[in-house]
Amino acid sequence: MEDKNNIPENVNIKDIIDEKYNNKLDKTKIISNAISIAIAIVISVIVLYALYIIIQPTLKNTFSSSIFTDEQLDRIEKAAKIIDEDYLYEYDTDKMIDGAIEGMVNSLDNPYTYYETEEEYQDSLNSGSNGNYVGIGVHLTFDKETEGIKVLGTMPDSPAEEAGMKSGDVILQVDDIYVNIDTYSDAVDAIKGEEGSTVKLTILRDEEVFEVDVVRKTITENNVTTEIIDDIGYIRIYSFDNGIYNQFKSEYEKLRANNVKGIIVDLRNNPGGLVYDTLNILNLFLPEGEVLRLVDKNGNEEVFKTDDKEQIDIPLAVIVNQNSASASEIFASAIKDSGKGVVIGTKTFGKGVVQYVRPIKDHGAISIVAAQYFTSSGVVIQDKGIEPNIVVELPDELKNDSYVSRDQDLQLQRAIEYINEQL
Fold this sequence. Notes:
4 domains; 25% strand; 19 strands; six-stranded mixed β-sheet; Pdz3 Domain; alpha+beta
């Protein structure tokens, strides 16, 4: 029988005790580490849960909208899911988003606010950048009464003029596009095209509706013509676009060098254009002072002033009509309010809002009405227009003609009379 109490020879008792003690320490250490890890995991879970409770509302707001309610966002998502789950064919999500943005913009029912896809936006940036484009040579705006495209004027020697189009014509259809508030910008774009191609327009003139085919060609815009009439300088501005300030200043200085005794600025059928160029031209005529105020939806104001570097010292008359719009109205109102000249003709069109183009990074842009103008005397231009100092009507059969012969042009005749009265 083995004696369990016998210790083998050559074995040190201390070594046996140390081995047993160390084994015990190792087991205790393992158990202690396991307990520590378990506690750490529990604490981490508690902390993470607490953080989730704290930041969860913030995370939710990250995926919500400050404009749309959760219910409205849910409707959009549900519509997209219906398409995704049920639509038989493949679809393009970017194209869907473009359509959604266009739908939002169209719902505003404002012809001056519209969405352009990236391709359309790039085309608009490049079109006419050098003063040239392919089209028919017309100045256009939206006609609220018919929801058509109103012709404010035709350019000299343009395809539109050659085809017999007149100021006041309303375009009801462009090829196969019926014009309304939703299709307005598309229809305007469709009037442009390739050199030598033809566009078919359906025109409303008074109560007559007719069609006209117009052949497109390259249009080079020269927006200023001048002449001297009985020692009076006559300047016609067709629009305030494409380097208009330099064009105007050059012609104006030529007239002053000829010692004209007065100046007539003709803005009839002028649809407007660049506000800053308009202000630069006004700097040639007016003393220092406020010209107009631009006010946005939050009541923020931007005040535009002339700088008094020079001002006109001879009689000045500005001619306007029912088709003078936007920057033309700014120009006319500034001359009227300053007292440096008079406005002659009929009440202007009444477009006193400014459009900003807001790009959506690599995905087109929105051209949006963002502010309206007030004249220095506080008049709201939008939908009201500018009343002339001296009202002169043309006969009905002539009021929409782009060009009226001198002997029939009662408005020009009255402007000449006014200049002579001041001498």
